[in-house]
């Protein structure tokens, strides 16, 4: 799908290990993709259905990604 999105210049699968805090513990995840847009802007993308990503986990991951300067 990303090969045909006009705004996508490049993408990398599971590009990094992202540590985050949840329920008093340090946890980690590997975001599905690091997407580089034609503008040079980079974002972390996840391709899981909403019912497999609890809201508190998503918020914690977004905060950790923001610390790296990457939208999630």
What brief labels describe this structure?
single chain; 72 residues; alpha+beta
Q: Could you characterize the architecture of this molecule?
A:
By secondary structure, the chain is α+β, with helices and mostly antiparallel strands. The protein contains one helix and five strands. It has a three-stranded antiparallel β-sheet with strand order 1-4-5, with no helix packed on it. A two-stranded antiparallel sheet has the order 2-3. Strand 2 and strand 3 form a beta hairpin. The radius of gyration is 13 Å and the shape is globular. The mean pLDDT is 95.
TL;DR?
This protein is α+β, with helices and mostly antiparallel strands and 72 residues long. Helices cover 18% and strands 35% of the residues.
Topology:
Layout: E1 8-13, E2 18-22, E3 25-29, E4 33-37, E5 42-45, H1 55-67
Antiparallel strand pairs: 1-4, 2-3, 4-5
Hey, roughly how much beta strand do the residues contain?
A: 25-35%
Using only C-alpha atoms, the radius of gyration works out to 13 Å
Kindly state the mean pLDDT as a whole number? 95
Q: What is the string of SSEs from the N terminus onward?
A: EEEEEH
């Amino acid at each position: 799908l990303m090969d045909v999105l006009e705004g996508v210049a490049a993408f990398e699968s599971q590009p990094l290990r992202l540590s985050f805090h949840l329920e008093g513990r340090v946890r980690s995840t590997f975001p599905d993709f690091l997407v580089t847009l034609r503008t040079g802007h980079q974002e972390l993308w996840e391709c899981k259905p909403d019912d497999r990503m609890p809201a508190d986990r998503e918020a914690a991951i977004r905060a950790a990604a923001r610390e790296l300067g990457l939208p999630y």
